[in-house]
Design brief:
Blueprint: H1 2-16, E1 20-22, E2 25-27, H2 29-46, E3 48-58, E4 64-65, E5 71-75, E6 78-82, E7 101-115, E8 118-126, E9 131-139, E10 143-150, E11 156-163
Antiparallel strand pairs: 1-2, 3-4, 3-5, 3-11, 5-6, 6-7, 7-8, 8-9, 9-10, 10-11
Length: 168
Amino acid sequence: MKKMIVVFVMGLLMVSCASYTIDGQKVTKEEYALWTAQKVREGIENRQFVISMKSMHPFRGASRHLTGDYSLELYGDSVVSYLPYFGEVRMVPYGGGKGLNFIGRITAYEAYQVTAGLYRVIMGVYNDEEEYRYILEVFENGSSTLDVTSYNRDPISFMGNMTFDKKR
């Protein structure tokens, strides 16, 4: 019985001592949190970031975990939207349209800090079929929510994380 307790305690210690690395160097949890907060702020200010989506929440129906490489990427005044869509569509272009998979331009961009540790980005996004409104909220730890609305589709929300390891 004592051996099982010792093994259990050792396992807990190993899990609680998670290591964080930045560019191959080990850092403390606090240093990693500061680095992440700085990267989030820089990405939003420079209009250069990638959000990897982990789940989606349609207006109608159940939430779903995403298993692919779905993402929202922003590069200056361009957006790469690679997102799934489930919901009601009122008007579809011939052939089914692009949905939320497109490279488009940003027609409006507003970014501001809502509270300490939370940023909100409101974008008007246009592709050659439709105009969307993307409302992105990003916490300093990189966790994000995205709400997408348009005139012809039911709204849909996504949850994900800002990534910092992709080369742009």
